[in-house]
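BUG: 3D viewer hangs when loading the predicted structure for this chain

Environment: internal workstation, default settings.
Expected: structure renders.
Actual: progress bar stalls at 90%.

Input used:
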Amino acid sequence: MRGVSVLFTAFLLLLLLLLSRFGESDRVTSIDVHRTKVLLGHQEISHHYLDVRTEKEFNEGHLKDAVNIPYMVDTPQGREKNPKFVDQVSAVYGKEDHLVVGCRSGVTSLYATSDLLDADFKNVVNMEGGYLEWISKGFPVVEEAVDPEL
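Structure tokens produced before the viewer hung:
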């Protein structure tokens, strides 16, 4: 009987964890790539693009003037959340800076945006559809030159 109680408690804790993350999209503001393009070109209020993809993904192509701080990092155990993510963002941006957070498809950036809001960043939005949506619209990107010697 005690084993059933432990399993039930573990199930409830897992369910609570999942439900706590389920509401992330309710408190995160998401904008489409068209609005992102307008905000990044805005002259009066400076918006910064924070690319949370891996360094490898970022180096394959990214938005102009983007800053890359990966939300996920590759480890020997697989891909895991970057434990220093918020600290790394805080070292580059202030809590009042206007940030548009993007990733490959808009999912990881949703979690990254939520973490930044939890850390008291005030003006952070998620870019829906991510980099894939950006390039599908034919918007400009910076592609790193590949050294043919490599």
